[in-house]
Amino acid sequence: MALLSRKHIDSVDDRKWEDVPVPDWGGDVRILGLSGTARNAYEASLVQLGPNGSVQRVKLENATPRLVALCLVDENFERLYDDKEIAELGKKNGAVLQELHTVAQRLSGLGKKAVEDAAGNSEAAQSGSSTSA
What pLDDT, in 10s, does the model give residues 26-45? Predict the structure, then answer.
């Protein structure tokens, strides 16, 4: 396989999305996976740092509707709910929100490990060069 150039990488539309049936709402919704920057911001929003920079607590209040709101988009990939409307979305059926949250996690590469990493509770990834034979 050839090495990719920056121009090639920048030109690729690598967004991942899925249209999810939501019978309780009478139709389908589109869930778009988070970009790398948006994913990092979401992960950072899950922790509260103390004065010395260490994790003081994991903040899970409205974590499910927040992720769903970040990923719930229309056919033009525009968000349906902005940050000020997360509480309104959070009033919807919890089972439906959880199902959409699970899809959003998968498409965004999030999961329990991501929360642990954000909280500093898992081992750091190895750094440095690797070689392959």
Answer: 999 999 999 999 999 999 99
